[in-house]
Amino acid sequence: MTQVTEPSTKEFLAFAKPDLGQEEIDEVVDTLRSGWLTGGPKVAAFEEAIREVAGADYAVALSSCTAGLHLALLALEIGPGDEVITTPLTFAATVNVILHAGATPVLADVNDDDHNISLDDVAARITDKTKAIIPMHYGGQPCDMDGLVALAEQRELRIVEDAAHALGASYKERPIGALTDASVFSFYPIKPITTGQGGMLTTNNEDLADRVRLLSLHGLSKNAWNRYTEKGSAEYQVLAPGFNYAMTDIQAAIGIHQARKIAAFQTRRAAIAALYDELFAALEEVRTPTVHPAIDHAWHLYPIRLHPDRLTIDRAQFIEELRDRGIGTSVHFIPINLHPYYIEHLGMKPGDFPIAEGIYESLISLPIYPRMTDGDVERVADAVREIAANARR
User: Fold this and answer.
1) Domains plus CATH for the chain?
2) Cα–Cα distance between 34 and 227 in angstroms, integer?
3) What tens digit of pLDDT does each residue of 122-136 get?
């Protein structure tokens, strides 16, 4: 884990960086030397590590979070004629997997405080065709899971959690990963832990886990480990038209050690968030994240919102000013209904989701990752305060 020391230079501070150590390097080298590069013993070990973090009975390693969301819908037999409700304030993958399954995405607006999907709007959009809900734990803060589960049970709906941001988070002392039909995590380089690319589906449903595993390997009755080891058999059967969505042992080799660091990573992210809160406490031009009680936040993101009525510059100019000061940022997310494809093909339009769109217009994600020092955090906060002061109405 990186020591919390002062930065030595004023070089560009990236929006996010993975925290990789010698352990990950040595494990990858061991994998390369083993000659077993595809899914094998390292994948199995990584699955077990994430299963424990998520508190789930089963875990299936996959090539991406997108793959996991797609396969979860297929395993739940959701397809043409079905509707799936999700949030507009998410990455395109959350909606695209619904389309890939042949179902119809239906968006529900979000809460203004935590940016998570609004249960009231979800309830208002349920029809006889609705089969599932895909909530996304925005920034690593869990949604209202008790409310979602109660609504789903009442209306006989399935829940597949887009937990790309939420590994290590918990809701009322219960880890995200075993509260619904399935949860799917991302291991993209900027996520809570990384395998370079990759994802993991966790569930307490054995049949669902088995189906996802089958579909992730071309629908084959046996994976490579079962076919090519000394006790394996070359015979197999194709049981379904599956996909090439499996994780490799090279990726899992990184993930094994990343999983062991998740608690330390989360502690550091929480400390950075607390320091940001402290440094922005008196800054009236900026709104800091709302955190609900009874949850443990993964702090994948630290999103601030500008008060445009108190500034003479807009969000784009504010980001440019930060870049000029060597600070990398991002915006999470451009609402789904503002993208050309969904406007053209799904009939969405600007103005459909006023809360999500209002959030987006003033939103900036600041750097928050374990390799940041306290000095880095102070540098970011100083830049935000300086820009706000210079642009104050």
Assistant:
1) 22-260 (3.40.640.10), 262-390 (3.90.1150.10)
2) 17
3) 999 999 999 999 999
Any long-range contacts for 218-227 (C-beta under 8 Å, 24+ apart)? Answer: 218/242, 218/243, 218/244, 223/39, 224/38, 224/39, 224/40, 225/39, 225/40, 225/41, 225/44
b/e burial code for range 95-122 (CB count within 10 A of at least 16 → b): bbbbbebebbbbbbbbbeebbbbbbebb
| Calpha distance 145→254 (Å, rounded) | 31
Q: Mark residue 98 as left, alpha or beta (left: phi above 0; alpha: psi -120 to 50; beta: remaining).
A: alpha
Model confidence over 331-340: pLDDT tens digits?
999 999 999 9
Residues 227-241: tens digit of each pLDDT: 555 556 678 899 999
Q: Tokens 């004629």 identify what position?
A: 81
Q: Is the pLDDT of residue 183 over 50?
A: yes
Polymer length in residues for the chain: 393
Q: Is the bond preceding 185 in cis, omega lying within 30 degrees of 0?
A: no
191 assigned to active site: yes
- The pLDDT, as a whole number, for residue 257 is 98
Q: What is the dihedral of CA 33, 17, 143, 348, to 10 degrees?
A: -100
Compute the average pLDDT of residues 39-46.
96
For the chain, give the mean pLDDT: 95
d(CA 357, CA 334): 8
Catalytic residue selected from 191, 222, 231, 261: 191
Which 3 state secondary structure label does DSSP give 110?
strand
Q: Residue 14 has which token pair?
A: 């990236």
Specify the residue for token string 């100019």: 317
Strands (E), 265-351: 286-287, 295-296, 302-306
